[in-house]
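Reopening closed ticket. The problem is back. First fold of the pair:
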Amino acid sequence: MQIFKAIVIEKTGDGQKAGLTDFDEKDLMEGDVTVRIEWSTVNYKDGLAITGKSPVVRRFPMIPGVDFSGTVEASSHPDWKPGDKVICNGWGIGETHLGAYAEKARVKGDWLVPLPPSISAREAMAIGTAGYTAMLAVMALERHGLTPAHGPAIVTGAAGGVGSVAVAILARLGWHVIASTGRSQEADYLKSLGASEIIERKELSAPGKPLAKERWAAGIDSVGSTTLANVLSMTRQRGAIAACGLAGGMDLPTTVAPFILRGVALLGIDSVMCPLERRREAWKRLESDLDRAKLAAMTHEIGLADVLTVAPHILDGQVRGRLVVKVS
C-alpha cells in the first residue's frame, strides 16, 4: 500500500487547515519500524493540534494524532519484527513527527511498547494517552507512599478521558473517589465508574484561599489553573496531587502555603517523554487494574474522517469518556 489515507494539516496564510487526503508512503519520516495502524484515539492535545488553537504542531505538513496501535509491517530494529502488535504514545508524534491519523506510520522502534497479551488493539486506544497518563498519575501517587487508607482522592475533569480512566482505576484499587465535573448530568456515569462523591466544578474554579479546609489526601488533576490551586489548598497534610493537564489553563495562581505548611507535594506527570521502563510498567498495570467492562462503557467508536468533526467538541468539554478511532 504505497498510497494510503491520512489526515494532514497544512500551513496557510492565515493559520492552518486539516483534511483527509491521500498520502504517499515515501513521504513518511525517518524511522526503523513501519507500522500498519489499526486504531487511534482523540485526546485533548489532538483537538488543539487539529483546530490550531494552540501551537501543538511544530512542522508542516503534519499528520496529527499522538498515539496508535497496530501491526509492524517492516523493521530494522532488533526488538521488532513484522507481525508484532505494538502501541505508540507520545515521543512527539503528531507534533514534530508524522503521527497516528493515517493508515501507516514510520517511527523509531525505541518509541514502541508491546501490546499486552490480554488487551486488544482497540482497547489499547480506548485507553490511549489519556488512560496511560491516568495510570502514570496513580503510580506517582503510590510512589509518594499514598494508599486508600490515607483518605479520599479527588479527580478533576472527571468526565473527560483522563478523568474517566482515573476514576475507574482508583475505585478498583479501593480509593474513595471524589469526582469533580462541570457536567452535573454525568453524575450517574461517574458513579458507574466507581466515584463515591460528585462535586460541582464551580466549587474549585473560583479564586480561593491559600489554605482551605483539608478534604482529600491525593488527587489527579487534568484542569490546571485555579482548579489545581484550590485542589492543592484543600489537600491533607503530607498529601500529593498529580498534575497532568491544562484544560482550564496553563497558569497556576497558588502560594507556597500548601507546600510549606502542610507538606503537600505537586507531582508532574509527563506522558510524552516518559522512560520506556515506566511505560511498560504502566501498560502492565492497566492490564490488571482497569476494569475492562468500565472501559467499554466509557468508549465511543468513530471513523478517521470523524476526527475532524470531533476535535472542536473535545476542546469545549462536550466529549464524555474515551473516543476510539478505527483507522484501517
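Second fold of the pair, where the issue appears:
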Amino acid sequence: MMEDVVVVGGGPAGLSAALWLGRYRRRTLVVDAGKGRNRFATAAHGYLGSDGWHPEKIREAGRADVERYDSVRLLASQVDQIARTKNDEFEIVTPEGTFVGRRVLLASGVSDVTPNIPGFDELYGRHIFHCSCCDGFESSDQDVLAIGWGEHAAGYALDLLDWGARVTLVTNGEEFEGDRSSKTALQRHQIEVIEERVIDFRVKEGRMVAAVVESGRIIPATRAFFSIKHEPRNSLAKRLGCEVDEMGYVKVGPHGETSVEGVYAAGDLTPGEQLVQTATAEGAVAGIACAMSLRGAGAAAPDVPDPGPDPEAELNG
C-alpha cells in the first residue's frame, strides 16, 4: 500500500517528523534500525522537560506519542535502498519488504568514529563521551581526558574548560595536527598534549579514575571525551542525488527540503548543532513541510482523508 511519507530513522528527528505527519493525518511509515548515536549513553542532558533522562526513555516516550496516531506505523528494520520510480514516487527496500512512498524524510543521523583503546566500550556512555556540550556539566571541576589529534582537537579540549575541568589532551599515538597557534593556546591554558597511545583505563569502585599511556604514565581522569570524526549516514541521500556539503552532511533548505524534489532531511544528518532538541525541532519543521507538500493530492490510503487544497494556489488561481 502507498505511504504518504517514509521516514528513515526513529530518533528524535524522525519521531518528531512522524508525530506531525500523524497530526496531518498523512499515512506514514517510520523505519528504524535502532542504531541511534546516543544509544550507549546513560543520560541525555539539556532537553527541557526530560533533562537527565535515559536516551531510550526519551525514544520510548516519542514512540508512545507517535503510536497514538492511526495513520503512522513503526517498523524496526533498516532501509537498504531507495530509488525514484517512473511514477515519480519512491521505492523503499527493507529486509521486511518493499514499500512505496510519495515523500521520503531522511533522519538517519551520524556515526562517531571511536578510538581503539582497550576497555573503551565498557566505559562509553558512562565515563567516556563524545559531546562536551551535552555532558560537560557533569564533568565540572574534574580531571578530564580529551582524546583526539585533528586540527579541531585543541578547540575541543579548550571547550572543556567552560566547566572548570582540568584537561589533558591525548592523541592516542597519533601526531597532533594542530598548528602553532593551537599549541600556544593549549600551553597558555595549561593543557598538556601527550602523543601516546592509551593502553588502559583504571576503574575503582565502578568509577574511572585514570588512564594509562604506553610509557606507563598514569594520567588522573574521572571522565574522558573523544572527538575523532563524525560520519553522516548519507549513503541513501547520495544515491538519491541529494547535495551534501564538504563534511558529508545533507544540505537542506529552511523547511528541511533537500536538492531532490520530494526528499527531506532533518537532525544530525544535516549541518548545524547536533543536539536532541535541535533534531526534534528540525524533524517537526520537515514533517510539517512534507505534509503541506501533499496538499492537492489524493489520499494514500482509504482510511485517511484527502489532503486539503493548496491555499496559495486556491487564492491566487
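Update: turned out to be a display glitch only; the data is intact. The chain has nine helices and 17 strands. The radius of gyration is 22 Å. Please close again.
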